[in-house]
Write the structure tokens for this entry.
Amino acid sequence: METWFERTELLLGEDQVKKLNDANVLVIGLGGVGGICAEMIGRSGVGKMTIIDGDTVARSNRNRQIAALSSTEGKLKSEIMRERLIDINPDLDLTVISEYIEAEEMGNLLDQPFDYVVDCIDTLAPKIVFISEALKRGHNLVSSMGAGGKIDPTQARVANLWDTYNCKLAFFVRKRLRRMGVEEKRFPVVFSPEAIDKSRVYEAEGKNKKSVIGTLSVLPATFGVFCASLVIRGILGEKLI
């Protein structure tokens, strides 16, 4: 009988597909990186997922976010992604959290037995809390660094966080984590060392954000695919870094 994942099974084999079917993955942040990441993980056949985002679609999201259409403006990204993921795989065991997870709630969230957790948060303070709490609990963690301000997807790469360079977000993540005493913890991140045109970075006032930077559709999508690939290959038993 034909199945929607038969091409995946043709590539990987039945036993490997079963590993994906049995896996439980969390993706937090469903913007330009996280939306693509969540969808690629869902399309791989992962059987259980939790997706988290408290934001709604804005008009400016349309240039890069898979949930963003003229018809979805003002709607919750998490609910849009719920519809997409269930439409892809009606048997998916999906938990949707449509809110911002505060620092004190991160620990309870991460007490669950996930096979992989994926950080696609684009603001520093909650990103640090999520990473530190995930590492504290020994989760398999994949994290996206900064995709903004860059235009060349061929420069995207994977490395241990502590080996990244020319990425301002990664710099600040390393700095904060060192202060918290977790420098010895290795985990894979997606980053790009491509130089940013600083004239295209603008000051802004907002929660956890001090600047706004331009983005191009292909970079967040590339980062999202890289993150999903790390999760899929990790579930299948590949050493990532």
User: Anything to note?
Assistant: The chain has a mean pLDDT of 94. Residues 218-235 form the longest helix (18 residues).
